[in-house]
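Priority: medium. Attachment 1 of 2:
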């Protein structure tokens, strides 16, 4: 079973992702802050991370840098409301645009984990 970390400050985003991904039989961990996210990465290294780049309490760029030192090959998916969000600035390949849809979340997470 693949471990996925959901790091998002917005309750609606977290709940939606948990609802969608729990049906797909992933082992989910949820964090609402940078510190909590980093503790999860250390304790249970994820196969994939869904990072909310619009949440100040997550500090996604800093978390991304720290997580890559612990789990260099972790697949990271950015969550952002702007489809023009620059993935290359953070060396990312995957984006799920808000608002979330079940189909988009499953498609992107499946691709990410298969890579």
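Attachment 2 of 2:
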């Amino acid at each position: 079973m693949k471990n996925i970390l959901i790091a998002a400050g917005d309750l609606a985003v977290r709940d939606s992702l948990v609802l969608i991904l729990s049906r797909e039989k992933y082992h989910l961990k949820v964090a609402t802050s940078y510190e909590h996210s980093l503790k999860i990465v250390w304790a249970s290294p994820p196969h994939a991370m869904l990072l909310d780049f619009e949440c100040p309490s997550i500090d996604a760029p800093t978390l991304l840098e720290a997580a890559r030192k612990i789990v260099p090959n972790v697949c990271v998916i950015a969550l952002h409301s702007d489809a023009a969000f620059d993935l290359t600035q953070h060396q990312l390949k995957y984006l799920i645009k808000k608002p979330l849809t079940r189909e988009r979340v499953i498609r992107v997470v499946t691709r990410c984990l298969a890579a």
